[in-house]
Amino acid sequence: MLIPIIGVGAAALASVAGYHTMGPTSQLYGRNFIGLPRGTKKLALTYDDGPNDPHTGHLLDVLAKHEVKATFFLIGRYVAQRPDIVRRHVEFGNALGNHTWDHPNLIFSTPTSLRSQLERTSTAIFDACGQKPSLFRPPFGGRRPGVIPTARAMGMTAIMWNVTCYDWSPTTQEKIEAHVARQMRGGDVILLHDGGHKAFGADRSWTVQATDTLISRYKNEGYKFVTIPEMLSSEGEIP
Ligand SMILES: [Zn+2]
């Protein structure tokens, strides 16, 4: 019976390694922030893969209507293409994070390419708006030993999430709301997308619509929407 036992063990180990590599809440490869303690009446909306046009602009209109600020993890090559949208974020008061230059899975990156991905993006954000990001989110949530310490050495805190909305492919406002309702526990970091990593201009109309109804619904339930830096400071954790 030795072989089957080894087989089960190997499968279990592979599954554990896979979880720590891609699972958003795993802490094995470095400390990363995934939200405030359960029951906290604060929520953070986070948007990846922008800046994008026209959907980032539509999203800013919705956020302005509700007087809510959010956190955006930007792709460097889109920042270089549309620095004007980055400046709008800063004028609006949104928080910005580094989401790499062209969205590789960092599990497969060399130390040199990892550093280059992060540095080029932080420089592009600085060139656009005069601020270097203090937040980082790995594409696909992918990380290996070294990714989070490298980001930290560059002054960035790794931010993951605990509510996944599956809005990176065509979906509906109702489905996004159902994903949030199912996973929410208070103090959550909600993962949404205002752009697409494959090409600039991706449709994110469902995300814009869902943002409108999510904010109305959870404000009515007594939740306050905050940025990730606001969450970090209320946790007492200084990045
Ligand atoms: Zn992404």
Q: Beta fraction of the residues?
A: 5-15%
SSE string, helices as H and strands as E: HEHEHHEHEHEEHEHEH
Span between termini: 50 Å
CATH superfamily grouping of the domain at 33-98 and 120-133 and 157-233: Glycoside hydrolase/deacetylase
**Based on DSSP secondary structure assignment, what is the total number of beta strands?**
8
Fill in the CATH topology of the domain at 33-98 and 120-133 and 157-233: TIM Barrel
Main structural class: alpha/beta
Descriptive report:
The chain is of the alpha/beta class and 239 residues long. It is built from 9 helices and 8 strands. Strands 1, 2, 3, 4, 5, 6, 7 and 8 form an 8-stranded parallel sheet that branches. Helix 2 (55-66) runs parallel beside helix 8, helix 4 (83-92) crosses helix 5 and helix 7 crosses helix 8 (205-220). The longest helix has 21 residues, at 2-22. The protein has a domain at 33-98 and 120-133 and 157-233: Glycoside hydrolase/deacetylase (TIM Barrel). Residues 48-49, 99, 103, 139, 197 line the site of zinc ion (ZN). Zinc ion binds at residues 48-49, 99, 103, 139, 197.
Secondary structure elements and pairings:
Layout: H1 2-22, E1 42-50, H2 55-66, E2 71-74, H3 76-81, H4 83-92, E3 95-98, H5 111-129, E4 135-136, H6 147-153, E5 157-158, E6 163-164, H7 173-183, E7 189-193, H8 205-220, E8 224-225, H9 228-235
Parallel strand pairs: 1-2, 1-7, 1-8, 2-3, 3-4, 4-5, 6-7
Helix pairs in contact: 2-8, 4-5, 7-8
Residues 48-49, 99, 103, 139, 197 line the site of zinc ion.
